[in-house]
Hints:
Radius of gyration: 22 Å
Strand content: 15-25%
Order of helices and strands: EHEEEHEHEHHEHEEHEHEHEHEHEHHHH
Number of strands: 14
Largest sheet: 8 strands, mixed
Helix content: 40-55%
Distance between the termini: 52 Å
Amino acid sequence: MQPPDTELRLLLLTSSYWPEHSPPQRRWMSLITTLCDQGWAVSVVAPVAHYGPGPDYNADTKGHAWRLQHGHLGERIYRVPHLLLGDNRIFKLANQFVGAAGSVLRGVATGRQDAVVVTAPSLPLLGSALLVARFKGLPLVVEMRDAWPNLAEDASLVRGGSKSVINGAVEYVQNRADLVVTVTEGFARTLRERGVTNVVTVRNGILMDRTPHLDAPPVDRKRLEVLYLGNHGESQALDVLIRAAALVGDDMRLTLVGHGSQKPALRRLAVELGVNVRFLPPEYREAVFERYREADSLVISLRDDWKSFEDTIPSKTYEVLAIGRHITGIVRGEAAHVLTEAGEGDIVECKPREIAELWRALAADRGRLQPAGSGRAWVQRNAEYSDLACQYSELLRETIHEHRTHPPQSLGRRIARVGRAAVKVARSARRARRHA
Length: 436
């Protein structure tokens, strides 16, 4: 597809970007690769890199607050401050507010753009993007990569009076966005039922030309090699994997690659149960594919007691489907539907005994480890990032065109509108503190 003649300029607000290694970083760097070919000039407002350092992370690439940084895809990166606080929820929220405030100041001073995109889950950043878009008279695209605010309720991040304030603030921004983008059809339906209009789905995905198709694992291996690669947090319920591995015993080895808040507790549990678990730090690029190559079954896991996860698909799902390995799918809802539709792997409940039964059966009959081969074809049709970026480009252009059919307000009116919005945000914050 040839790029259009007219160059358009996109401003992206995100809480995580290169050289970090995170879901928003992987998604948007993959999208920007094609968007630039489609005639887009992209500017990114993001905090100084601090989370999940990737292979390119160093003192120079992480950036400096308030300074411009040139990305290797041709994008311009405007850094805002990040406080070096702890890793608990309170400190994370404080950092989100610092980043959100900085994003307003930096976002309005990045020159001319044609549209503003904000990618959640940083909830304060949603408000920042609304202020920037209103100040500059631009259409706002809100990308909900997770099922917020539903997920915040499931995780008990908000309670009591603050719950209604947070929900109201998120829905306030969603209802005033020119376009809301979700990564799953299920959450798009939820938003439409809630009354949000102009909702579309642009999946997560992979770049197929950078994702190899592996040969099948050996049929004569003496033990089952099971691999989980990704975040070690509350959402993944990795303790269930360790308990299942303890039930299987020496017929298997479980390998957990990555980092996260629950990793110390998982190590302690493995020692307590005396189970053969190999814990490894995060790995990147070719090292990831080598780790996949040595595995027999790859785990996709989400806890089953948070209802919002029925509308969630772990971002690694598409990569795992494409490389050619058996999948242990500990998921439900839309993620389970994708695995079923792709015709790969086994889906089990998030219970140690049921997972252990599957792994025992795989160890006893390694013929079940041979992938059907339909997963890669499914990803090619549904989750190739070059196609998804073209879809995104068309949606953005349509949104800009629609916005331009209604002349923007004068600068004075926009400033007044921003002031009124800021007052509303401040009042909501005060109510939240009173109810906390």
